[in-house]
Amino acid sequence: MSPGFTPETRALILTVSDSSFQGSREDLSGPLVADLLQQAGLTAIARQVVPDELETIATALRRGAEAADLVLTTGGTGLAPRDVTPEATRMVCERIVDGLAERMRSAGAFQTPLAALSRSICGTVGTTLILNLPGSPRGAESSLQAVLPLLPHALDLLQGKTSHDSREASRQKVK
Amino acid sequence: MSPGFTPETRALILTVSDSSFQGSREDLSGPLVADLLQQAGLTAIARQVVPDELETIATALRRGAEAADLVLTTGGTGLAPRDVTPEATRMVCERIVDGLAERMRSAGAFQTPLAALSRSICGTVGTTLILNLPGSPRGAESSLQAVLPLLPHALDLLQGKTSHDSREASRQKVK
Amino acid sequence: MSPGFTPETRALILTVSDSSFQGSREDLSGPLVADLLQQAGLTAIARQVVPDELETIATALRRGAEAADLVLTTGGTGLAPRDVTPEATRMVCERIVDGLAERMRSAGAFQTPLAALSRSICGTVGTTLILNLPGSPRGAESSLQAVLPLLPHALDLLQGKTSHDSREASRQKVK
Predict the structure, then answer these.
(1) Are C93 and C64 in contact (CB under 8 A)?
(2) Which of A93, A115, A117, C69 is most buried, judging by how many CB atoms fall within 10 Å of its CB?
(3) C150 touches B at CB < 8 Å
C-alpha cells in the first residue's frame, strides 16, 4: 500500500443537501470530512454545497472530476424521497468499485444496523475516484475511515502508477 | 430506529414459483413470511402467487407498489434457468438499496455458504420498498430476520418522515 | 451441496493482461487457477490469454460461454486505466450474481484491505457461470478458494438440476 497521498492530490468535498444549500441547516459533515482528509495529509481541498437535484449533482461531479483526483460526496445516499446522490454518481461514473461501498457499509454496521440503508456507491471517471459518504457526520466519518487507508493506492492505480510496472502503465496513459 | 411499523403499513408477499402457481407444490415460504410480519406488528398483509415469468413478476411488483408500502418476494432469486425475480425487480425499481441485500446474504452465510448464490436485490419505487427473499423457507426467514428491524425506519424515510426534519420532508413530498 | 464437479464439466481460464498477451510478462495466475481447478476434480480445462481490450474480452467471454460451463477470468479487475474485465463481463452476462463477488472480497479482506479495490463481478450467460478473479496470483487464489466449494452446486442449478425437482427443471430446460 502507498505510504500516503502525494502533495499534488486535489480533493473536492461535495455536500449534497437541500437544507444546507438553502442555508437553513449548517453543513457539519463537509467540514468534518475536510478535517479527516487534512489529517491524512491532503492540503488541496475544495468544498461545494449543492441541493438534492439529480442533474445538479451530476454536473458538480463531472466538473469536480475534471478539477480533482478525489471527489467525496456527503448526503443524499438514504431512502428519503429526494435522496439521489448514488443515481447521479452512477450516471457520471465509467466504472463502479463495489468493494469500497461494501467496505464502508460493513464498517458502519459495527456502529448501527441502519448503515445497511446507505445506498453509497463508488466509481471512477477518467483518473478521478468518486466516493459517496452518508450525510450524517457519524456515518460520513465511519465510512471514510473504513476506506481512507486505501485511497492513496487507489489513486496511484487510477493514474497508471501500478506497482509492478509503473513506467509501462504511465506510458500507456499518456497515449 | 423507529419502534415498529405503523398500524397503516400495508405489505404484499409475492411468492414467485412455477410449481406453486401451478398448484403442484405447496407454498411454504409465503405463509412463513406472513407469520414473521404479523409477529413484527403488521396486520394488513396480502399474498399473491405468480409464475417465474419476467413480465408477470414485473407487473405484479408495479401493482403491488401502488397498493402496498412493503413488497416482499420469495423465490426466483437463484441460478435455475427460470430464476428472474431480481431482473424483474431491477426493471421496476427506481433506486437500488445494495446494503439490504448485502446484509441478508451476510446473515445467510452463517447458516450456509450457499447464501452467496442468492441474487436478491432490494430497491424502491415511489414510497414502496421491495425486497427479494430466497425461495426456501429457511433462506427466506434468515434473510427477512436480518433486515426486519430496519424496515419501519426505512419506510419512514421513504415516506419523507426523516428524523431531523420530518415536517420539511413531508412538505417536500406533497409537492 | 453437490459433492463435486461432474466429469463432463468444462472450464475456460481467461487471462486478461496486456503484458502477458504481448509476452512481456509471464502469466502466473492462469496456471495457478488451472492447478486449483484440477485439484477440485476438473479435467477439461482450456486456457486463453487476451489483452485488456473491452471488445476482445467480451468476444472471448461469449465464445467461452458457448464452449465451457465455467469461465474464470484473471486480471483486469482493478483501477488501472485499462482494467475493464468487469465491464466486459457485465456486457456479456444475462444475470449478475452479486453474492459470489461479495464473498470473494470478504475472503480477500482477511489477507489485505486492498481486496476492496477488486471490481470483480460474477454472472451467468446461458448455462455458463462467469467469475472474475483478480490478476495477482495471491488474489486469484484467495478469491477462487472462497467460492470453489459452491461452484458444483451453482452449475447444477444453472443446468436445471435443482435439488427439489431435478426432473421437472431438466425438462423445462430442454424445451
Answers:
(1) no
(2) A117
(3) yes
